[in-house]
Structures are given as C-alpha cells and as structure tokens.
TrEMBL record:
SUPFAM superfamilies: Oligoxyloglucan reducing end-specific cellobiohydrolase. Coiled coil: none annotated. This is YCF48-related protein. Keywords: Photosynthesis, Photosystem II. Residues 13-90 form the Photosynthesis system II assembly factor Ycf48/Hcf136-like domain. It comes from the Bacteria. InterPro entries: PSII_CF48-like_dom, WD40/YVTN_repeat-like_dom_sf.
Length: 98
C-alpha cells in the first residue's frame, strides 16, 4: 500500500488477513475464517480503501469478501453475484474483479 502499510493473507484454514502500518514491526489480524474448506486465492485493491479477496467455493459458493476502509475490516459478500460453483471448480489465477 505504501512504505509502512501492507496487507497479507494466510490462504488455508484457518485463513487470515493481516495488516501492518509500521513497516512490518507489528501485525494486526483484520480477518479470520476457520472453515475447514477455506482457501483464499487472490486479493486486489482498487484504491487505498477498496479491496476484495476471493477464495475457493464453500458450500458451492465462491468465497468473496470486501473492505471499504483500507483493509481494517472485511465482510463476506455476494457483490459479484457469481453463479453456483461447479464441483471441483476453483481459481487458477487472479482477475480484475473490481
């Protein structure tokens, strides 16, 4: 995000999104999901405030969460109105989603 601020994700259950505002000296957990099916695939930010993370399907639905405050808070959403996932379907590469 800048020389002091970064956001990273731990991709598999439990999945975490962590944020630093001091160049990595300390990290704050801003999202956690312990669902055993959780696997995050990609994160992208449209600007300094708006971001989105996508993950493999859980219960047949592609996982999507968004932030509107620079990654401080994340909320699961159906913003993309994606259809039900086909069994075995998952993401292979990130795409521009926002």
């Amino acid at each position: 995000m800048d020389e002091k601020t970064a956001i990273v994700m731990g991709i598999a259950s439990p999945a975490y999104i962590l944020k630093t505002a001091d160049g990595g000296k300390s990290w704050k957990k801003v999202y956690e999901n312990k669902d055993t099916a959780m696997f995050l695939d990609a994160m992208v930010f449209k600007n300094q405030k708006e971001g989105i993370v996508i993950g493999d399907p859980i219960d047949g639905k592609i996982f999507v969460a968004v932030t509107n405050d620079g990654g401080e808070n994340w909320k699961k959403t159906n913003k993309l109105a994606l259809p039900k996932a086909i069994p075995g379907e998952a993401f292979l590469q990130p795409v521009a989603l926002i």
